[in-house]
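I hope you will forgive my troubling you with a question about protein structure. I am sending you one protein, given as its amino acid sequence and as whole-number tokens for its backbone shapes. Thank you for your consideration; the sequence and its tokens are set out here:
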Amino acid sequence: MLKNAIYNLFYFYELLIIVRIFMTWIPNINWEAQPTKTVKLITDVYLDIFRRFIPPIGGLDFSPIIALIVLQILQTVIVGIL
């Protein structure tokens, strides 16, 4: 039960990051309007950790990809321990 709940939390957060990635492709998105503001606030807490170490290359931000990989590794380790 706890194992499934933790797995689902990781999965939901991964989905939020993917939604955030797709939202950046929309040129005229208003980041101060709901629900985009909420998604941005929730995901930037985690993504900013990686943005400090991975600068944009050619104007492209690869930090969300690395963040997703790390999140999936953490998910596997933590759910595996339980």
Q: What stands out?
A: The chain has a mean pLDDT of 92. The chain has one domain: 2-81. The first helix runs from residue 2 to 23.
